[in-house]
Amino acid sequence: MHRGRRGARRRVERARLMSVLQIPAMANAHSHAFHRALRGRTQQGTGSFWTWREQMYDLAARLTPDLYFELARAVYAEMVAGGIGAVGEFHYVHHQADGTPYDDPNEMGRALLAAADEVGIRIRLLDTCYLTAGIGQPPAGVQRRFSDGHAEAWAERVAAFDDPRVGAAIHSVRAVPREQMGTVAALGGPVHVHLSEQPAENEACVAAYGVTPTRVLAEEGVLGPRTTLVHATHLTDADVRLIGDSGAQVCLCPTTERDLADGLGHGGDLRAAGTRICLGSDSHAVVDLFEEMRGVEMHDRLRTGVRGHWSAAALLETATVNGHASLGLQESGVVMIDPASPRTAGTGGDVHAAVFAATAADVTDVVIDGRTVFDGDHARVGRELEAAIEKVWA
Ligand SMILES: [Zn+2]
User: Fold this and answer.
1) Is 369 part of the annotated catalytic residue set?
2) CB neighbours of 248 closer than 8 A, spacing ≥ 6?
3) CA distance 303 to 356
4) Backbone angles phi, psi at 211, to 5 degrees
5) Per-residue model confidence (pLDDT) at position 19
6) Which of 32, 194, 231, 299 does the annotation list as catalytic?
7) How far is the CA of 282 from the centre of ligand 1 (A)?
8) Does residue 195 carry a pLDDT above 80?
9) How far is the CA of 21 from the centre of ligand 1 (A)?
10) What pLDDT, in 10s, does the model give residues 142-191?
11) CA of 311 to the centre of ligand 1 (A)
12) pLDDT value at position 1?
């Protein structure tokens, strides 16, 4: 009886506190769900983005539709538990290991959609065109799983999806010949592209085409208000202006960019040029959009030696309004944050606490489209991830 009363008191107290720390559900605009199985396994020895990619390819070779479904379901549950109500899934593992399509050529993509449905997260499946290993080089090894051979074949496969949640992505200027980019962008709706994540991509592009990757996208008609450029880390001043004038968004992924030693991006410069910024957890070394929000400001501080580029409200906008706009999705939910956790206690319980102190672990309740999709049980999410990841590596 005594315990029951105390429990009730705690719930009332929690409800009172909850009413002061609530934010809209966030949008994770850039995800590769399967990368989550790499967490903690790529942190030994030295290396670069390119050595990490070899480890990622080992993992990509193991995926089956069933494994992919279970892993994505656990990863989307982790996202929801961190206050994320919508995800942009940049999906390129389309075919069987030797490149042969499955009986339903969209089986892998459908596994991702089904995983999102089970969890209750909104999804934009950014079906990714990935045709070449590098400019002018045929796909090799596991990349054969990614390739449809030609953008026309990609478009045919995507048309067969017949699902309004499917959007388009060009993997990068490395992976799609420039003359085929327009075919991908012609799908309509959001178009996402990895852009200038690494200096080597820029060098290869300049060597092959004589211009930067940003300029190639502009010349091929891919830069526009429907476009989201992921990373945009290594840009020239002219690239920044071109992106600003085009109305394209940029998706920064600060925790991945630091994990992969990509470099400090151009958040502040792009914003000054009129570009809207959204956020993604990309490789899922971390799935915590609170950390991504802070990362935007912190990386600008490291780059410039000056504090205070972004207000808490502006950062929250990147994770909410801008992320949904990038995915062409409506905002749809609310997130309750514990304002008296070890992280948030004493911070004032307002938007500053949410943006500059809270972590995904402080999320207590998430409601999307009127449905409670997370009830505060973070331990359950951990168990599901553990089981799904163990199966992938078995
Ligand atoms: Zn990515």
Assistant:
1) no
2) 223, 224, 225, 227, 228, 229, 275
3) 19
4) -140, 170
5) 52
6) 231
7) 5
8) yes
9) 31
10) 999 999 999 999 999 999 999 999 999 999 999 999 999 999 999 999 99
11) 26
12) 37
Arithmetic mean of pLDDT over the chain? 93
Distance separating alpha carbons of residues 327 and 351, to the nearest angstrom = 24
Catalytic site residue from 148, 259, 262, 282: 282
Q: How far is the CA of 30 from the centre of ligand 1 (A)?
A: 6
b vs e for 302-312, b when ≥16 Cβ sit within 10 Å of the residue's Cβ?
ebeeeeebbeb
| Tens-digit pLDDT profile for residues 301-345 | 999 999 999 999 999 999 999 999 999 999 889 999 999 999 999
Ligand 1 centroid–CA 280 distance in Å is 9
Residue 231 annotated in active site: yes
Nearest alpha carbon to residue 222 among 208, 242, 198? 242
The dihedrals phi and psi of 35, each to the nearest 5 degrees, come to -60, -20
CATH 1.20.120.140 fits 19-39+47-393, yes or no: no
Q: How far is the CA of 172 from the centre of ligand 1 (A)?
A: 10
Q: Spell out the domain ranges in the chain.
A: 19-39+47-393
